[in-house]
Amino acid sequence: MRRAFLSTLLALALPTLPLGALAETVEAGGAKFDTTAEVAGQKLVLNGLGVRYKAIFKVYTVGFYFKQKADTPDGLIKQDGPKRVLLKMLRDVDGKDLGKAFTDGMQKNALPEERAKTINGIFKFGQIFNDMKKAPSGAAIGIDWIPGTGAQVFVDYKPVGEVIPEPEFFNALLRIWLGEKPADDDLKNQLLGKEKRGR
């Protein structure tokens, strides 16, 4: 009798929950991403999402969060306010190998006029992955841009390493996927919301 009474109370209470209480998610490569995120007290929206492949293997799913959606690289890179790059690993990857892939991508795509101001950040960023040893399958790795503070790397939503203050570093980071020589052309379009997400 008591159990039935409690079940009735629960059934009556559930419809009164606000719609936003349950976060909406989308999926790519088997990894789920919330369609919104909060960084520096501001709500961001998922601009695009896709899977990074190496040959035929899925390496990670990556999503971009910004205040406003945009479908061009400049529309995202030059946008003011907080930003988030979030990766969810789909396989175990050596930390040094992952760090090298990221730093190579930044160096390849950094604008000539910004390159000198990216050196400090690229070095610190690479060191974080060297120290990590391994990026295991299932890990969430992200970089938040916080205006007035800088870029904060986090692993499984816990901050790691020093804050990187140069905005040029975060611009170079975004250009790994959005630059003239992106990691993957299809992934670039997915992150810009122009193509269907990878399976």
TrEMBL record:
<feature type="signal peptide">
    <location>
        <begin position="1"/>
        <end position="23"/>
    </location>
</feature>
<dbReference type="InterPro" id="IPR016087">
    <property type="entry name" value="Chalcone_isomerase"/>
</dbReference>
<protein>
    <submittedName>
        <fullName>Chalcone isomerase family protein</fullName>
    </submittedName>
</protein>
<dbReference type="InterPro" id="IPR016088">
    <property type="entry name" value="Chalcone_isomerase_3-sand"/>
</dbReference>
<dbReference type="Pfam" id="PF16036">
    <property type="entry name" value="Chalcone_3"/>
</dbReference>
<feature type="domain" description="Chalcone isomerase">
    <location>
        <begin position="27"/>
        <end position="193"/>
    </location>
</feature>
<keyword id="KW-0413">Isomerase</keyword>
<keyword id="KW-0732">Signal</keyword>
<dbReference type="GO" id="GO:0016872">
    <property type="term" value="F:intramolecular lyase activity"/>
</dbReference>
<dbReference type="InterPro" id="IPR036298">
    <property type="entry name" value="Chalcone_isomerase_sf"/>
</dbReference>
